[in-house]
Amino acid sequence: MRIVYVPKIIEKRGRLSLSDSMHCRVRYMTDGLVFGDKDFCESIFTKYRDYFSEKRKSGSRKMKKVDFGVCCTVRALQIDAIQPPE
After folding, report:
1. Chain center to CA of 70
2. 59: Cβ contacts below 8 Å, ≥ 6 apart
3. Is pTM, for the whole model, over 0.70?
4. CA–CA gap between residue 37 and residue 72 (Å, rounded)
5. What value does the CA radius of gyration of the chain take, rounded to a whole number of Å?
6. Residue 69: which of 39, 32, 36 has the closest Cα?
7. Comparing C-alpha atoms, which of 79, 75, 78, 77 is closest to residue 45?
8. Residue 65 CB partners (closer than 8 Å, separation 6+)
9. Per-residue confidence of the chain (86 residues) as pLDDT tens digits?
């Protein structure tokens, strides 16, 4: 297994690969509310529209600092979205 120094990658404004990010505690998986492709996130957002602000126009949010391909979440996490493995 390749060991990646996560804070250095983030500090340089880089992105973790899918493999590397899966070795971390990724808050997107636990705190993102919904995890899936854009259409799935939008469908959940539409179904539960009353739980979101009236200002909000769309449901899906791209995940920052990780590369999960087409996956999105419903919450845009800004702080400590990923943490290095212990």
Report:
1. 11
2. 34, 41, 42, 43, 44, 45, 46, 52, 74
3. no
4. 6
5. 14
6. 36
7. 75
8. 10, 15, 16, 81, 82
9. 455 566 777 677 677 777 777 666 667 777 778 889 999 999 999 999 999 999 999 999 888 777 778 888 888 876 666 665 56
Cβ atoms 25, 85 nearer than 8 A: yes
Which residue is it, tokens 């500090």? 11
Closest CA to 65 of 44, 51, 81: 81
pLDDT for position 41: 94
Q: Got the DSSP string for the chain?
A: -----HHHHHHTT--B-HHHHHTSEEHHHHHSS-EEEHHHHHHHHHHTGGGS-TT-----EEPSSB--TTEEESS---SS-EE---
